[in-house]
Amino acid sequence: MQEIGSIWSGWQCKPLVFELPLRAQITKYKTGRSSVGKITHGVPQGSILGPLLFIVYLNDLPLNVHETNILMYADDTVLYAAGKSVFEVASKLQEDLDRVSIWLKANKLTLNVAKTKSMVFRTLYFQGGTELHLNIDGAPLEQVPIFKYLGTWLDEKLNFNFHIDKLCNKTRRRLGSISRVRKYVTSDIALSLYMSLVVPHFDFGDIIYVHTSNENFSKLQILQNNAC
User: Fold this and answer.
1) Residue 25 dihedral angles phi and psi, to the nearest 5°
2) Cα distance between residue 171 and residue 220, in whole Å
3) How confident is the model at residue 16 (pLDDT cuts 50, 70, 90)?
4) Where would you tag: which of 105, 106, 120, 167 has the fewest CB atoms within 10 A of its CB?
5) What's the Rg (C-alpha) of the chain?
6) Which of 174, 190, 93, 159 is nearest to 132 (CA)?
7) Of the candidates 73, 60, 57, which has an alpha carbon nearest to the alpha carbon of residue 4?
């Protein structure tokens, strides 16, 4: 409620004042049912207000990030930093990871360390070491060369070779499905299938990999030509 009060006041806050203290939950398994337990903290799952309350709950997280930059989308959060050496970047990230850990504990939240990854983006000519050795409360974070973020596969050198290969494989399967039913449908229906099943995959995130290699663009062009 303090988080909400810092953003809204007056009539906007009154409905939440009445709803939040009344929350309770039970656990049901087969014919058994637990006693009613009062929910004293957290965001109610499944309610219309859930997404809004979750955003409010995380609202002040960026205030605890001092050495790095932060990107937040729903429950996906990224800390990133730039530096002249991997050691410099790792130091900045570790300082803010320690601050985030303190914030999580204060807000009764738990970080899924198994799903938290670290990654180094570098140029083709970088010859130094790339090990970050980051941790959360002593638990080491896995460093990966490729990671899927919001539907786009990111690689260390940002050449997007892996992403393009994944995109091509997915598109081939969908084109194959359309091809198998092509003789049973009209041209308009076939075009509608192509526009709804294939084109969105070409369009999604295309501005991100606009600087990929000509070889990758050729792969995509061949698929476009095959669709025609």
Assistant:
1) -150, 155
2) 9
3) low
4) 106
5) 24
6) 93
7) 57
Residue ranges of alpha helices (H) inside 73-155 are: 86-106
DSSP output for 150-192? TTEEEETT---HHHHHHHHHHHHHHHHHHHHHGGGS-HHHHHH
Q: Residue 18: pLDDT band by 50, 70, 90 thresholds?
A: very low
Select from 95, 16, 103 the least CA-distant residue to 59. Answer: 103
What whole-number distance in Å separates Cα of residue 66 and Cα of residue 68? 6
For 43-93, the pLDDT digits (tens) are 666 777 777 778 888 888 999 999 999 999 888 899 999 988 899 999 999
- Cα separation, 62 vs 70, in Å, equals 7
User: Pick from 59, 22, 29, 61: which is nearest to 44 by CA?
Assistant: 22
Query: Could you tell me which residues come within 8 angstroms of residue 220 by beta carbon, excluding any fewer than 6 positions away?
Result: 164, 167, 168, 202
Which H or E run includes 72? strand 69-73
Q: Which helix (H) or strand (E) holds 118?
A: strand 117-118
Over residues 209-215, mean pLDDT: 88
**Tens digit of each residue's pLDDT (9 = 90 or more) over 90-105:** 999 999 999 999 999 9
| Max intra-chain CA distance, the chain | 64
